[in-house]
Hints:
The protein is an alpha+beta fold.
Amino acid sequence: MESKVSEGGLNVTLTIRLLMHGKEVGSIIGKKGETVKKMREESGARINISEGNCPERIVTITGPTDAIFKAFAMIAYKFEEDITNSMSNSTATSKPPVTLRLVVPASQCGSLIGKGGSKIKEIRESTGAQVQVAGDMLPNSTERAVTISGTPDAIIQCVKQICVVMLESPPKGATIPYRPKPASTPVIFAGGQVRADPLAASTANLSLLLQHQPLPAYTIQGQYAIPHPDQLTKLHQLAMQQTPFTPLGQTTPAFPGLDASPPASTHELTIPNDHVEQPATGHRTTGSTC
């Protein structure tokens, strides 16, 4: 792909992918889609948002570079407006920077970083924006997240320089794009703790075990409620003694000594003698318990 850099920018068509959280996507879409419609019309760029019930969404911006830069400017200023509005109801004194996350093929990240980090250092110093390239690829893809933060103007200048690098160093080989996974149905454990992950259904039987154990201490890691390491050791020891879990809904205990149904309770009832029917043999009953 040929690229020509001039004061007016680049004269090529480019596609940039952004990774956004649900709240950020909602801000971009706006009420009844009015905000994204305005961005499309005023920038001239095509702006598409991935479908699906996902915590993260991909926002794809395509068009001539000047249109892309306009779209980025509108997004950056919209996020700054959101930050300003949120601070009006907050006691925070320092204003956090606007942050955008680009999704870039891993094969292009080396050019973006430069030899010994020289290129990324140059971009930081010339734009005033903070730029960080993730060390690991995004799940099930050959792409990495590039996080840019700063003022809207700094972000716009930074995006321009990143676009130049991407055009001068096209991706090598096939790129497997990152696709966010849909949110899974959470499994609620004892004590109201929630574990939400794709394997939750297969581990749901652990909820039975946790209900019969002293409630463990949990640490929250992202979307996960993780039991204290001591409790994990106990769970592991119990699990190693067991046959495979029984399917959900069955009352057969998944672990020896643990009954999925509550234990039956017994009550003793004493009935007065004069209320007991006498047996036909003539022998008198002195008392009875049921």
